[in-house]
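Risk register update: the risk of archive-format incompatibility is retired. Evidence:
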Amino acid sequence: MLSGRIEQFEHYSQFQSIEDFNETMGMYMACFGDQFTKGERKALYQLTRFCAKVPGVSNIRLCKLLAYANQSEPISRSTFERALRKAAKLGMLTIHHTCRKEGGYSHNVYVFNRFDGASDVQLTKGARPEKPDESKAEETKSSPEAINLFKTNNKDISKDVRLEDLDESYCPNHIPNNFIKAAKPFYGADGIYQLWGTVLTASRRQSLDGPIEHYLPVVISAFKQTVFQYKKGKIKNSFKAYFHGTLVGMLAVEARKENMSNCPYIVYDWLGVG
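Archived output:
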C-alpha cells in the first residue's frame, strides 16, 4: 500500500459519523477497558483524536502522535506500541503499513473496527477456558427428555419435576414477556431467571434515566448478538459473562446518549482518562 493523504484511505472507514465511531469505542472500553493500563488507555484516546476527519481511520505518524500527546502528559513510545498491539489482538484495530513510491517504509494507517459484541481473544493469562455450561441448554432443546418434560402422569410433582425441567411459563412475573420470548428457545424458566439477573447486574453499572424495562430492545439485541456469537463458536468462556459484557457496552451507549441529550455541548470522555 502506498502512503498518502488521509482522504486516500476513506474507504477503510466502517463508521457513518464520528458519533457512530465514538459509540463503538465506548462499547469496546466498557467490555475490554480492564485489559489496558491507564497509560495505554490514554494512548488509545490520543490516537482516536486523530480519527475525526475520516471516522475511525488515522494515518498520523507515531512520532507526531507522541509529540502531540506529550504536550499534556508524558506517554512513552513503548506504551503506545503496547496499546496498539493489544487493540489489534482484541480486534479493535487493524494496522496497515504503507511504503513510498521510491521504496522504503512510510507511515501506518490505523483502522478501528466496529464492535461485534466481544472478542474471542483473551489477553490475560489463566487456566484453559472450560466449555460453557450453558451449552447444556442447547442440547436440552432437541433431546427426547425436553420433548416429554411435562408428562408426569399426575405423580408427586416435588419428585418428578426438577427446577431445570420447568419451561418458560413458570418464569417469575417480574421478568418482561418479550425477554422471555427471546430466551425461551434456548432456556427454561430457571435459565431465563438467571439471565434476567445478569441483565439487572449489568444495568446497575450504568446511570440510566429509566428502569431497565425501558431498554428492553437493547437487552434483547445484546442477547441475540450473544447467541449468534455462541453459534459461531466465538465464545470461549461463559455465555452469561459474554452476554453481560455485551450488554454493559450497549447500555453504556444508551447512558451516553442520555447524557448528551441533557448536556449536548459536553464531549464525552469514553476512556475515562480526563
